[in-house]
Specification:
It contains no helices and 9 strands. It has strands at 2-9, 13-14, 18-19, 31-40, 43-55, 63-71, 80-85, 100-111, 114-122. The strands form 2 sheets. Strands 2, 3, 5, 6 and 8 form a 5-stranded antiparallel beta sheet that branches. It starts with a strand and ends with a strand.
């Protein structure tokens, strides 16, 4: 299991990345998992769109692996976990020199929205 950094955010933001250059995933089953423990807003319907990106050039030209589109409210008492299995993203550059993986919160909707999330690369 490899932890993919998440964040607590109130606007679109890019989370820290994690190296996948040493990850030996080519012949195993795995999934990219995202857990949201908070998605709320003061009014309206809270929504978030989070992409999963990999890169081999420090995100100068990132490639999108997949996208999660979530609607809240989501509370810590009932977190939501979604995942992308290997079959849906076979081009993940795990094991490639300088390869890194990150979450990119590209949209956050609602009045004064907040989201807290983190993820894992699960074998």
């Amino acid at each position: 299991m490899l932890t993919i950094p998440g964040a607590t955010a109130t606007a679109a933001a890019v989370a820290s990345s994690v190296s996948i250059s040493a990850a030996a995933l080519a012949t195993t089953q795995w999934a990219i998992s995202l857990t949201v423990t908070n998605l709320t807003c003061a009014s309206g319907t809270p929504r978030a769109r989070i992409t999963v990106e990999d890169s081999v050039d420090a995100f100068t030209t990132p490639l999108t692996i997949g996208c999660f589109n979530l609607e809240g409210p989501i509370l810590a008492s009932a977190p939501v976990t979604v995942s992308i299995p290997r079959e849906l993203c076979p081009s993940l550059r795990a094991g490639v020199t300088s390869a890194v993986l990150r979450f990119n919160l590209i949209a956050l909707e609602g009045t004064s929205p907040t989201i807290t999330y983190a993820g894992q690369l699960l074998p």
